[in-house]
Amino acid sequence: MSYRIDVDREVCISSGKCVADAPDLFRFDDEEIATPVTGAPEPGDERALDLARACPSGALTVHDADTGEEIDIF
């Protein structure tokens, strides 16, 4: 299975945790909200789960890349 991570812009508090932990996957946009890096490779499953669990606001959600189904991270 392959996972993708989505950012809920309404929930993101711009802590920078995801940007610091995975600069290859996330950056800040002009509004200082985390956003996925265009063209970045999909993270490994464990890395995706770890990044989402570490987000202090819960703005990162993990989805099955094939079905779009949200994955329970806890």
TrEMBL record:
Pfam families: Fer4_13
UniProt domain 4Fe-4S ferredoxin-type: residue ranges: 3-31
Entry cofactors: [3Fe-4S] cluster
Keywords on record: 3Fe-4S, Electron transport, Iron, Iron-sulfur, Metal-binding, Transport
PROSITE patterns per the UniProt record, alphabetical: 4FE4S_FER_2 (PS51379)
Function: Ferredoxins are iron-sulfur proteins that transfer electrons in a wide variety of metabolic reactions.
Gene3D superfamilies: 3.30.70.20
InterPro entries noted in UniProt: 3Fe4S_ferredoxin, 4Fe4S_Fe-S-bd, Fe-S_cluster_ET
Name the UniProt record assigns to this protein: Ferredoxin
